[in-house]
Specification:
Layout: E1 20-29, E2 32-36, E3 42-46, E4 58-66, E5 70-78
Parallel strand pairs: 3-5
Antiparallel strand pairs: 1-2, 1-4, 2-3, 4-5
Length: about 80
Amino acid sequence: MVNRLDAGPTPAPSAPDACRQHAGELIHKGSCYALRRHDGSEIWLEMDRIPHHLIEQQVMIEGVIYGNEVISVEMIGPN
């Protein structure tokens, strides 16, 4: 018989936050894109279309944030 430690219930995945506005600089990191916020932190972006003309520009993003790690972008434009 194998003894197992019960780790308790599995934590639920973090729920997405409601659609919000985020401002910062759109940056290209490797083959991905991120938003560099005013405090210097960065958050990954998930986008269908990449607005190349806005890279290294200040932008305003509306989207759903997942676990403070990824924003699913619904709208992006110059700030």
